[in-house]
Amino acid sequence: MESDKISGCAVVIMGVSGSGKSTVGKVVAGELPDCIFLEGDDFHSKQNKAKMGSNIPLSDEDRIPWLESLRDATRELIGAGRIVVLACSALTIRYREILREADEGYERKENDYGRCKVKFVCLETDKRLIAERIEKRSTEGYHFMSPALLQSQLDLMEIDEEEGIVKIDNTESDLGCIVDRILDLVKQT
């Protein structure tokens, strides 16, 4: 890949908890020289993690400061000409608009998502497989999210076709194929 032609952009690997965002995001970032991987979960407050661990879904009041911190970190890196891969649920249009603001030149206009330096890839995965993944990592102590919260995330997820979000089925797809599709998206940015 000719990374010298690519700079100052971000790809948000989005989806519900357990969809494979971190796994895919780390591999994509590893394929791009001078790329920074940001794990959205690392930006959650202790209070947010405690709520999710106690089967309490996050509210907008919980999520907005978290999203703003992700936006600010991404904006700084984009401004420095870096490529960013961000693993973040980004469940609603409103939440994605906050993340799009990482591109200082972005202005929300109808059907103008293509010009934004922040692109989104939604990993879609079978609900049963996601539930199994969340249960396993929760049981093994690898993650704070309670399996009981999966349905609340699925209920909140919204995608408007006008956003141009790339949807990838991560249920049975080969990781290499998924990564290649995302790398192609980065080349187009």
Automatic annotation (TrEMBL):
<dbReference type="GO" id="GO:0046316">
    <property type="term" value="F:gluconokinase activity"/>
</dbReference>
<dbReference type="GO" id="GO:0005524">
    <property type="term" value="F:ATP binding"/>
</dbReference>
<comment type="similarity">
    <text>Belongs to the gluconokinase GntK/GntV family.</text>
</comment>
<dbReference type="Pfam" id="PF13671">
    <property type="entry name" value="AAA_33"/>
</dbReference>
<keyword id="KW-0547">Nucleotide-binding</keyword>
<dbReference type="GO" id="GO:0005975">
    <property type="term" value="P:carbohydrate metabolic process"/>
</dbReference>
<protein>
    <recommendedName>
        <fullName>Gluconokinase</fullName>
        <ecNumber>2.7.1.12</ecNumber>
    </recommendedName>
</protein>
<keyword id="KW-0418">Kinase</keyword>
<keyword id="KW-0067">ATP-binding</keyword>
<dbReference type="InterPro" id="IPR027417">
    <property type="entry name" value="P-loop_NTPase"/>
</dbReference>
<comment type="pathway">
    <text>Carbohydrate acid metabolism; D-gluconate degradation.</text>
</comment>
<dbReference type="InterPro" id="IPR006001">
    <property type="entry name" value="Therm_gnt_kin"/>
</dbReference>
<keyword id="KW-0808">Transferase</keyword>
